[in-house]
Write a structure and sequence with these properties.
There is one protein chain. The relative contact order is 0.12. Helix 2 packs across helix 4. The chain folds into two domains: 88 residues, Winged helix-like DNA-binding domain superfamily/Winged helix DNA-binding domain (Arc Repressor Mutant, subunit A, Orthogonal Bundle); 66 residues, Dna Ligase, domain 1. It has a three-stranded mixed beta sheet with strand order 4-3-5, with no helix packed on it. Helix content is 48%, strand content 15%. The protein is of the alpha+beta class.
């Protein structure tokens, strides 16, 4: 997992100042597998750095996404969620999202097969629409096992 020195180097390359809020947010996201909202990140950061405001968290997250260090996801709940991009054990993964409880599961079971299909699709779309695909995301929505069980008990 990259340390602060590597992060600082990446920011210098992009002509960005290295700041304490940036380091704090990167440190938090690099230590969790959760897909955190800005308010959740803010709540965690406040415990150690009470001077960092919510606006700073939003601006920093935007910068980190543009720098390619973190990923931003919108899972249909009206909030953006963020995860650390580099150094993860399973860097290429996709998501299962429970529409009832909101839990998010990472999976990488069929990534190679899915990537082959996605790459073929990207090539076709790029040619047909003269479009340069830069990234993609695959998400499946449904009910997790706990919510399924709860629904069965109610029936």
């Amino acid at each position: 997992m990259p340390g602060p020195k590597r992060w600082r180097h990446r920011f210098r390359e992009q002509v960005c100042r290295w700041t304490m809020p940036r380091e704090a947010i990167l440190d938090l996201l690099s230590r969790t597998s959760k897909h955190m909202s800005p308010k959740e990140i803010y709540g965690e950061i406040q415990k150690s750095y009470p001077g960092i405001g919510l606006t700073t968290v939003y601006r920093t997250l935007d910068l980190l996404v543009r720098s390619g260090v973190i990923n931003r996801f919108s899972f249909g709940d009206g909030q953006s969620r963020y995860e650390f991009k580099e150094g993860r054990k399973q860097s290429q993964h996709y998501h299962l999202i429970c529409t009832q409880c909101g839990r998010i599961f990472d999976y990488s079971d069929f990534v190679e097969e899915e990537l082959a299909i996605v790459r073929k699709t990207e090539a076709i779309l790029a040619k047909k629409y003269n479009f340069m695909v830069q990234d993609h995301n695959i998400e499946f929505y449904g009910l997790c096992d706990q919510c399924q069980s709860q629904n069965e008990r109610r029936s």
